[in-house]
Design a protein that fits this description.
heterodimer, A: 262 residues, mainly alpha, 11 helices, 80% helix, globular, B: 601 residues, alpha/beta, Urease, subunit C, domain 1, TIM Barrel, Jelly Rolls, 3 domains, eight-stranded mixed sheet, six-stranded antiparallel sheet
Amino acid sequence: MDAAIRATVNRMDFSRRLRVYALESRAQFLSVWRVPAFSVPTLVFPLMFYVFFGIIMGTRGLSLVMPTYLLATYGVFGIIGPALFGFGLGLSTERSDGTLLLKQTTPMPPAAYLVAKLSMALLFSSLIILGLFCMGGYLAGVELYRWQWFTLAGVLLLSTLPFCAMGLAIGTWVKAQAAMALVNAVYLPMAFLSGLWFPVMAFPTVLQKLANIFPAYHAAQLCLKVIDMDQGQSAVLHLGVLIFYTMAFLALAAVGMRRPLA
Amino acid sequence: MRFETGQLDRGVILILVGLAVFVLVLATLPTPRTTPDEVTPRGDFAIVDVLLFDGEQFQEHRDVWVEQGRIKAVGRKLALPDDLPRVAGQGRTLLPGLIDAHVHSFGDVLSDSVRFGATTVLDQFTALDLTPNRVADRSSIGFSGAADLFSAGMLATAPGGHGTQYGMQVDTLTAPEQARDWVRARKEEGSDWIKIVIEDGSAYDFQLAALDRATIAAVIEAAHAEDLLAVAHVSRLSAALMAVELGIDGLVHVWADQLISDADAARIADAGVFVTPTLAVIASVAGQTPSRDLAGSLDADLLSAMQSSTLEGQFGATSEHDLDIALQNVGRLHRAGVTILAGTDVPNPGTASGLSLHVELDLLVQAGLTPAEALAAATSLAATAYGLDDRGRVADQQLADLVLIAGDIRGDVSFSSRIARLWKDGEPVTRRLQRKPDQAFPMAPSVTLISSFDTGLESSFGAGWFPSTDDVRGGQSAAELEVVDGALRISGDIKPGFPFPWAGAIWFPGDQPMAPLDFSGRTTLRFRARGDQRNYTVMVFGASMPAGAPPSASFQVSDQWSQLEFPLDGFNVGGVISGLSFVAQAPHGTFQLEIDDVIID
């Protein structure tokens, strides 16, 4: 059967193949969108935090440093959510309840499943970015050069990749029930320790050094570099660390996928 | 498996629309608003996202908010009111208004300085009654077209010593006991600190009377007793070390006679004595022309007549002055930790007010200071050394004296040709001078003999000869003209009352006093003279009244007639003459001068 499916898929021309990808993406998005337990926190939390820390508390003085800084870091916080939850929770749930197995029996190319999940994450990230940027620009009074708005958005979208990979690794290795706990255990502490909620400069030196181990820190520094508020480390370092984490998590996930379901 | 094409097309459209919305929203987000570059805002405004030198160090991406002539806030991403005019700072460097820590203020020095970003000047010897408004000007907000002036006023020197040769009345000292009263008199006059001359002329190959060690010590002590700083003019290492030993606060030249040892440099550092090397003027003494070279690269309408004229000047003496030694001394002092300030000694020959401060910055970097250290020498360090707490830094409540420069100057402090905007007290400074179109003046009659005085005071043309004294400027000097034995006899008395006293005779070539005539084609002024043995001055007035001293040359006479000749080029009036005067100046006392056969040919 496997060979037959392969043959079917191979016969699919490009536009048909594209449709499979598009439909699967749409299905993934809708399935997530329709679960308020996922969509509401991932969409609303970054925006809500930004309103509180960035706008209400951040614009009290003469300076717009806080709302500008937090625009980048809550941006990173925002894009981590859909990536980690979508991949981590989604995959482990779909593995546990058999959905994935079902999908694997269809002629859909296996990559479509991953692409669909990635598209879903990027779409959610885009919504978060738009929401944050509009609040920053129109409510907090943040002004950035046009190239900075676009570059920041671009860097944020690219930064979803390592967290998708991280989610993938969690999803392949951990069962659904445990995945929820693990994702949350990673998500919030990593966000805090990477300086996504408060500037990393405000940390004790030890914590500042510790931050270097988290991919979220490097993603945030890369975003902050766009608006000249980073710690002054090299962009190559941040990119290197992010690429390393992406590859490492993908490798971990590849091994994990081959394991039989417990 | 079936695919619903309609549904999919809708999906594609949805994705495209989504992308378009995403791009559109990003493209319309607020960007830094700036005022169009043609407008220089005044009073209340901000400079945004600029590379700031705050007086001590460089800071990137700073906003500087100016309100009512002072700095209201400095920081990143300031929350500025929507209607506040904003100057784009991207790709530019902002500095505090510069402080030239060694000038002599007369003529156009203050207005020329400010046009080159030197918004404050520290004068090291002038007649304070020439600038009666200086205290009001510098302590009020509002731009008067000139740099703020702080001054030593009169200097402490010996009779006939350095400082007495400029034709102004100097209150000299001869003994330590006079120091206290002398310093009090300076304080009364408004001196902001005390300047002491320690100079025997030997570094310039001549002999000068000088204060003795005890008197110098007494003046320093008296200055400190009156809570005034004491600074010293020195031109030799030995003089510098003596001044430091006697408790001086600052040295306002570096010496070029010999290298200082590291141990001596450390002593100066330990004593907390600052040094203002004035490398720009030392370069000129050494026969180099860095200021003139820099001026050559600038637009001509940036230079005033006075700047052009002082740039052309040269120190006559061929001395052993060596700029390299001076530069090395500055390097050693700096490495030892001595505070170095930027000063120029304008408007000495070969320098130009304002412009030469940029030369000084360059030379300080050559001597081993970093660009930031050189800039600090011209801003915060000068302010601290002289106790000026409202300037020299870009910080809250400081005066909004600001220089905005095109480009990043961290690598290269020669920025005089790159000044994009300039503010004094938050008011824009107009850098370029309005040139009057070249006026045509009536040609002078071709006769070359002006007056032979054979039949009286008349001249072959023009309004004729008149007495000329400092009473027009509030002085007391007097002069009388009479024709005796076919010559003009000028007798008079030079009296105190004006810092630059004069008395003598003036001839007006035009029908009216000071009406210019065109003498182009003529090259030489000739006359015969005899009289009391003292210095006299011949002055030639050009098309307009100079703000400072008119172009002049000095001559000496004896009781025998002598023939004197002066090239007209030397007076720099471009062939146009509105007045010609023969006068006596300081020192005080009576004089008699006889003039005959005045010829311009």
